[in-house]
Amino acid sequence: MSVEIVCAGTSWGGLFALRTLLHGFGDDFPLPVVLVQHRHRDSNALLVDLLQECTALPVSEAEDKEPVTGGRVFVAPPNYHLLVDDGHFALNTDPPLRFSRPSIDVTLDAVAESYGRRAAGLILTGANDDGAEGLRRLADLGGTAVVQDPAESEMPTMPLAALRRVPDAVRLPLERIPGYFRTILKLAPLPGDQRPPAASRRVREPNPEAR
Hints:
There is one protein chain. The longest helix has 12 residues, at 14-25. This protein starts with a strand and ends in a 27-residue tail after the last helix. It is globular. It is of the alpha/beta class and 211 residues long. Strand 5 and strand 6 (88-92) form a beta hairpin. The protein has helices at 14-25, 46-52, 104-115, 132-140, 157-165, 177-184, and strands at 5-10, 33-37, 59-61, 73-75, 81-85, 88-92, 119-123, 144-148, 170-172.
């Protein structure tokens, strides 16, 4: 199995899920990691700061025409759809899809078209069905589809919708997902606790379902 990019989408409950994911990937994770978290259009850079606490991999909001490079974490900026084309990111302001901009479906579809079977898509906790259709498209093109187990998701709606569209997706508890990717990439197992460190400040991102 040859995977060259990981794209993860989430909404409600996503901050904890993404922190767990990045911490578990480890500081030697070689692939580009693209994260789409439903965010209020006026959201600030706090999400990037909180994710950076959990990893030594550089975390930043993706910029228009920026190259997609390995060993980095790219976060979809608020109020833009994030696309991937010919090895570079692109931002656009097309209308929200399923009330969301950034839309998980839009990014997963673009990743699927660009990378095909070399792409991995991941759907985490969330309160709507965004991402289900994009994951189906990725799976149809031979990519690797992974879904957080709805039974232990903070909000199971998004994982359940993804599993309805891609019933053959790999279904795993959150804390086992990083190890799955490290295994298929033939990376050494990480020792110790896979839980992320506690946040250094008690701050909450704006309600991701707010419009």
